[in-house]
Amino acid sequence: MLLIRQRVVVVIALSVMVFTATISVLIGLSSAPSAFAANEGFVVTSSDAPTIFSSRVEMDLVTILDSLDNITGVSPEVFAFSEWDSDTFVVRGVDFERISSVGPAIDDQVLSGLSDGSVPDALIGDRLLSRMGFDLPATIVLVGSYNSKMDLVRISDSFSSGSPLDDELLVPLSVARYLSDTPEDMASIIRLSTNEPAWLSGLLSPESARFALFDMHISKSEVVIGESITVSASVRNWGGSEGSISIDLSVDGVSAWQISVSIDPYSTEAVSHALSFSSIGAHEIEMSIGGDFPVSLNSSVDVVEPYIVMESPGSVMDGSTFSVKVYTYDGAPVQDAIITIPTPTPSTNATDDEGVSELLADAVGEFTLVVDMTGTDYGSYDVVRRPSTIQVLDPSVYPDEFLPVVSAFSLSPLSIKESEESYGSAMVDNLGILTGVYELEVFVDGSLERVISIPLDSAQSRSVSFILDSLSPGTHVVQVGDFSMSLEVQPWFVDDSDIVRLVIRYGGSNSLSSAGSIPIYQAAKISQGNVAVALFALGAISGLLATLAIVSVFSKEVHEGRRRLGIIKAIGASASATRKLVFSQAFMRGLMGAAIGLVAGIACAIALVRSGVFVVFGHSLDFDISLGPIMMILAGAISISLVSALVSAEMAVRETAISSIRDLSQENISSIDIDTLLRE
Fold first, then answer.
1. How far apart are CA 282 and CA 224, in angstroms?
2. Which domain holds residue 178?
3. How buried is residue 115: exposed, middle or buried, by Cβ count under 10 Å (0-12/13-18/19+)?
4. Which whole-number Å values give the CA distances from 175 to 53, 81, 95, 113, in the listed order?
5. pTM beyond 0.70
6. Residue 629 shares a structural domain with residue 644
7. What CATH number corresponds to the domain at position 385?
8. Which of 328-332, 382-386, 586-590, 637-641 shows the highest mean pLDDT?
9. Does the residue 510 lie in any domain?
């Protein structure tokens, strides 16, 4: 008996077609941001950036990534939007020599045709060129994304890569930075490729706790016996889980201290320990951690006999006063030291709380200053004189002008670790009669590092000090006046320095995503939650409409078949037999309608996507639906059909046979053939 007619198939097919097409487009929309990664490799973005356009990644990460053996390509890129003839499109700033190393590949002949003229060359994707509709080559004006800046580019050629890049305009990095106000040392993203994806994910974006030891620091590089120093370092957990790590401190290869620290994800902890030494000489200090990422940091300390430094000008004018500074080996001022210049009328004075003594030069000649440490705590210390003698000059033979010269310069220490400091000291003499201000220039490797203003009286000498820090590893030449000295800066990191720097500086501060899984909120200027709600709402509405349509048609079919059900029950059919009859027919109709609707829906979605009517974030939407969603849609449509039919059938079988056929007298009874009805 036919209870569910063929027309049900049409309604189910149409409902499933609309639902399938909608879901297919929504799935394509949810993956649209992967277009910014060109669907290739991995992408490093700033983890706290609300959008991919506001992401800022430091360019020196490119250098570090380049140095790693497992990285096969690195491409820094900067995003901006622009408009042409009311058509908004993506401007991607790239390094044309790097982009193909990550992919997608761009024809070498197209890349080789780029020139370095006054107007920068650009390349346009073939899909964007089709939308914009002008002939090449063409010079166009690009407007800034978030400002009123404009720049000219010459579009020299087009390219076809079979990727989302075909919807973009590729320009030099400098152009995109100008349009988007991105600093020179920043990029929006860094795309990279690797021959070891698991290794890269574990390095930059590990789920478990991963530790690195860095920034080891010693409070003093030179100490005396029994003097305490502090050794400190920082430990970073750049993994996604809390964990513990043991840190070991050893002196001359012997363990001196060990501590275990627990660190939250993406956090840094500082550790420190005090040390003292009982023997003179150089002592090696090492801090290390083990685990999956072992790091050892080394430094050294010189243990010396204590000494005193006395600094004086190399020369002064007769009849002038001058300053002498006395300090300990570690820079602490020495108070109450008695300083004497042994002229015929000796001048004597004690150092003040800053270690400075003012003396009078009253005779021409060369003299050796005398220091008496009896009234200080340093009576047994050796005294180092810088310089060893002082020249008292006759002012009558010197010009009536301001004539400053640098008479002495020293650096201490001459070898430091990265992030340590070296202390510079210079003596400046005014060899003229007039007063003035001398601008002391300190150069490092030929570049001006700082300027110090020094007021000088007639024939006066003054000592000035400064600190050099934040110098990169290597040998640096420090020049002051006519003096120059070499300063060696040693790196902290001994093993795997590039990798250590990478995870310390960038681990946890950037997010690493595969090209196909960039969160949509990084491309849309709305929150991730709002996007998720919007996509869910659209899908839910489409699914609800399809469900209502299927439920309605089955309810109508069963309702119109109540007369047939009544007759079946009147001749003795049981409720279970009735349900079985309805189930088998509903299953076949539902399966047929769902299959037809599914195929039609996918075909409709493909046609809509290929028509180019969907442009999301400047890119043509790609059709993207996998076997999983297809099977879920098919199973859902069949389930809705079965549930709808069974609910309606259950309501029908609960009625009595008489109530089901009570209206037969009002219908055309003669048209009903029981045999035909039963055969159906």
1. 11
2. 48-204
3. exposed
4. 15, 12, 11, 18
5. no
6. yes
7. 2.60.40.10
8. 382-386
9. no
Tokens of 252: 């001359």
Check pLDDT > 70 for residue 160. Answer: yes
> Is the CB of residue 316 less than 8 Å from the CB of residue 462?
no
CA dist 349 and 358 (Å) reads: 7
DSSP state of 98: T
How far is Cα 338 from Cα 351, in angstroms, rounded to an integer?
A: 7
Residue 275 to residues 218, 223, 226, 253, 301: CA-CA distances in angstroms?
Answer: 10, 11, 9, 15, 11
> What does the block give as tokens for 589?
């109709």
Neighbours of 326 (CB within 10 A): 27
Cα-flanking dihedrals φ and ψ of residue 36, to 5°? Answer: -70, -20
**CB atoms near residue 198 (< 10 Å):** 8
The helix-helix angle for 497-506 and 197-204 (nearest 10°) equals: 60
* Residue 169 and residue 55 share a domain: yes
583-613 pLDDT tens trace: 677 777 777 877 787 788 778 777 766 665 5
Closest Cα to residue 251, out of 271, 276, 234, 269? 276
Phi, psi of 40 (to 5 degrees): -130, 145
Amino acid symbol at 160: S
Q: How many domains does the chain have?
A: 4
Q: Which two tokens stand for residue 125?
A: 């994707």
Residue corresponding to tokens 């110098």: 471
574, 480: one domain: no
| Residue at token pair 């706290």 | 48
Report the alpha-carbon distance of residue 549 to residue 11 in Å, rounded.
7
Q: What are the tens digits of pLDDT across the range 469-481?
A: 888 888 999 999 9
Last residue of a domain, one of 258, 276, 304: 304
Crossing angle between the packed helical segments 7-30 and 528-560, to the nearest 10 degrees: 180
Rounded CA gap, 195 and 73, in Å?
10
Q: Which residues neighbour 118 within 8 Å (Cβ) at sequence distance 6 or greater? A: none
At a CB cut-off of 8 Å and minimum separation 6, what does 7 contact?
Answer: 553
Give 441's pLDDT tier (boundaries 50, 70, 90).
very high
Residues 6+ apart with CB under 8 A from 631: none
